[in-house]
Amino acid sequence: MKVPLSWLHEHVHPDLDAATLAERLALTGTEVERVTHHGVPSGDNFVVARVLEAEQHPDADRLRVTKLDIGEAEPVQVVCGAPNARAGITVALARPGARLPDGTKLKKAKLRGVESLGMILGESEVDVGVDHAGIMELPGDLIPGTPLGNVLPLETDVLELEITPNRPDCLGVYGVAREVHAATGAPLGPAPWEHDAGSAGPLAGIDVTVETDRCPRFTARVFENVTVGPSPYWLKARLMAAGQRPISNVVDITNYVMLLTGQPLHAFDLDRVAGGKLVVRDGREGDTLETLDGETRRLDADMVVICDADGPTSLAGVMGGARSEVSDTTTTVLLESAVWDGPNIQRTSTRLALRSEASGRFEKGLSPEQTLEAQTVATRLLVELTGATVREGTLDVAGPSGWDGSHATIRLRDARVVGLLGAEIPRTRSAEILAALGFETADATDGIDVTVPHFRRNDVTREADLIEEVARIDGVDNLPATLPLRRGAAGRLTPWQQLRRTAADTLAGAGLHEIIGWSWSPAELADRLRLPADDPRRAALAVENPMSSDHGLLRTTLLGGLLDVAQRNVTRGLADVAIFESGAVFVPSGDDGLPHEPHLLGALLTGALRPPNWVEPQPPQADFFAAKGVLAHLLDTLRVSWRLERGSEPFLHPGRSARVIVTPHGGGDEAVVGWIGELHPSIAAEWDLERTAVFMIDLNVTIAAVPGPAVYADYTSFPEVRQDLAVVLPASVPAGDVVAAVRAAGGPLLADAGVFDVYRGTQIGEGNVSLALRLAFRAPDRTLTDEEVGERRTAIEEALAQLGGSLRA
C-alpha cells in the first residue's frame, strides 16, 4: 500500500517528517517497508505560465519559439516541440535551476541557434501522468507566476506500508490517517463520505438479483450524461504517486475512491448491460469470460460472477469483463460497490493466477457498511469531474441470508489490562486511544464498555484484542520488562539445544555463514536432483494453500535451499560461498497423519576456500576434502566417533562421495547419519555453479551418539615413540579401513595414527597403492620400551597383512 504524504496530509497532518512518522507507525504495529520520493526533488523554479506567442522555429519544422508570461516585467522565451503549443493557453514551466524527477537540472540552452530559458512541461516529465504526446494545458484562470506546487502535487514522500491481513481498513488512505491520528495525536479531518450527493430509495432502470451468500451486500447507482475523458492533473498526480496508472476520469475515480476508502468499485457501461438486469450467482461449468486484461477465462462453480442477459459480464471481486467496460462513448454508468466472501476471492484469484488491487482487498474481508461509504465519495467525484447527473435512488441488495450489521460491545476491565500487560494504563487513556481508533466507549463500573466499529468487526472480537490496541498505541516500549510469574521454574537450554548451538557455532567459527531457508520446496526439485522414483525424498507432503508454485511441497531435504542461496550469490558476483543451514525437514508418516520432522544440518562450499594474497594468488578451491575437513572439525568438536564409507547419492559425483557413519557412545550398532561429496557437474550446472562440495547429517542421530560430559584427563609427561611405515595395498582398500585396522591392532598404547602420503606408480605394481602411515605410541604412566612398541608394531603389520598389504622395504 503506497500512501503519498501529500494525500495523507489532507486528512491528518502531524508535525513529523516522513522518517519519524514511519518509525512511529512501525512502533504502533503498522509496518513501513520503505519511504520513497515521488515527483520532482523540489518545487523550486516550477511556475504557472501563459503562452503569449508561439511562432515557428526558423531552422526546425517541429519546434516552436514561444513567449511566456510568468508574472514578471518581461516575458521569457522557450523553445518547445509539443504539437499543442499555441498562444493563449496556460502551461507549466520549469525554469533554469529546476530539477526533474530523474535529477536532471535544467540550464539555459540554445536549440538550433535560438535561446531557450526553460521547459514547458508535459505530464510525464513531472510524474503527473503518462501522456507523452504534448504539454499540459492548465486551467485558464490561474495567475502566471504562481508556484506550480500550489496547483499540482509535484513532490511528495510516499510511505510504502506492509499491511497485515487482519487490517484491511488500512488499505485506504483515510484508514491510515486514522492510525496516524491515534499514534501521534494530530487532529483527524472529517470522513470524506460525510456528505452524500446521492439519495436512498428505489433505483429505476436496473434490476439486480443476488443468488449467492458469497455476496453479503451489493449496492449500485446510475449516473447519466457522463462525459468520459482525461482526468484532471491533480487526480492523475495522486494516482501516480500511489502506484496507479491513469486511464480515464471514470476509471480513475473508481481507483481513487478505492485507495481513499479501501473499498473497490466497478463501473459498468449501463447501455452495454444486456437486458438491463444483473444476476450475482455462483459460476457454472462452461462459463467463460473475457476480462479487462484481454484474456478469456474459464470459470467454475467455486467462483462468483455477475451476469446480464448474455451471460457472465464480470468476475466478482477480481476483475471486470471487457463486454461491459466503460469506453470513450459511454454516457450512462452503473457504479457497483459490493462486498464478497474473502476466502472465495482468494481461491479464485489464485486458481486463475489473476491478482488485482480489488482482490487483494476483498480477500482480507471488508465490511458491508463500506459499500455506501465508497458510493458517497464516488458520487461526488463523478458529478464534479464528468458532468454527470445522479439518477434518483440507490440499489441496495443483500444475499439470501442477509448480512449482520450489528456492532459488538466488549467490556474492557481495568484489572484485565494490568493482568495482561503487567502495567497499569489509566482508564481515561484507554478510552482516549480507543476513541481515536474509531471505537465508541462508555464508562462501566470496572472499566469501559467498548463498541467495535464495522471496519474492525472481523479483527477485534474479545477483550484481549482491545488490550492489544491500547498497548500498541500507548507504546509497547513503555511497558516494563518483567518475567512471567512462575514457581520453581528456571529457564535453560536442554542438552540437545546446547549441542545444536555448539554445532552451529562450530561451523560459523570455521568461516561458514548460516542461512535460514524456506520450509517449502518446488515440485520440480526432485527431478532437478535426479532422485529415482523410489527415493523417499520424493514423497513430499503437498501444501494446501501455497504462497507460490515454488512453495508447493514441504521440504524433505535442505539441499534445495542451500543450492538456491549459492546460486543467488554466485549469479550476483560473489563466487566464493561457504554456507550452512540447521533445520527440520518433513517426512510423511503413516502413523497419525503428521509428518516426521528430523532435524538436519547441511553445508555447502564452492569457490575459493580463502581470499587470494601475494603469497597465494590462487587459493585452493572447494572440493571433497575441504568439506571433509569441515565435517571432521564439526564431529570432533561434538566428540562423536565417526568414519566415512564409500557411498553415493544420485546428485553427487560417483567417485567423490561417501556415507557418514557414527558409532553410539558406549557401543551398539553403527548408524548412517548422512552423506558428503562433490555435486555431480550436471547438477551443479543446474544452479549455475562450478565445483561444489556439500554434506548433510541428521543432527538428532548424531547428537544421540555424543558421549556424556567431558571429563578432565591429565596429559602425560612421558615421551611418545614415533614411527613411520609404508604399506602396499590393493587400490580397492579404503584408506579409512586401513587406519581403523591399525588403530584396533595398536591397542591403547597407540596414541595416534594417520596417513601422510599416497603413492601410485610402476614400482609397486598396477592396481596397487602405497600408503605412508605415521604412528605415535605413548603410555600415560611410563616411558615405553622397544619391546612394548615392537609387539604393537608386529600386531599392526599382521592386521595390514589381513587387508592384503605388505610393507615396503
UniProtKB/TrEMBL annotation:
Stored SMART domains: B3_4, B5, FDX-ACB
Q: Write down what this protein is called.
A: Phenylalanine--tRNA ligase beta subunit
Enumerate the PROSITE patterns for this protein: B5 (PS51483), FDX_ACB (PS51447), TRBD (PS50886)
Cofactor: how bound: Binds 2 magnesium ions per tetramer.
Keyword S-adenosyl-L-methionine carried by entry:
no
Please state every residue range assigned to the domain named B5.
405-481
Q: Which domain of life is it from?
A: Bacteria
Q: How does it assemble?
A: Tetramer of two alpha and two beta subunits.
Segments forming domain TRNA-binding? 40-149
Start and end residues of each FDX-ACB domain? 716-808
Keyword annotations for this protein, in alphabetical order, are: Aminoacyl-tRNA synthetase, ATP-binding, Cytoplasm, Ligase, Magnesium, Metal-binding, Nucleotide-binding, Protein biosynthesis, RNA-binding, tRNA-binding
Reactions this protein catalyses: tRNA(Phe) + L-phenylalanine + ATP = L-phenylalanyl-tRNA(Phe) + AMP + diphosphate + H(+)
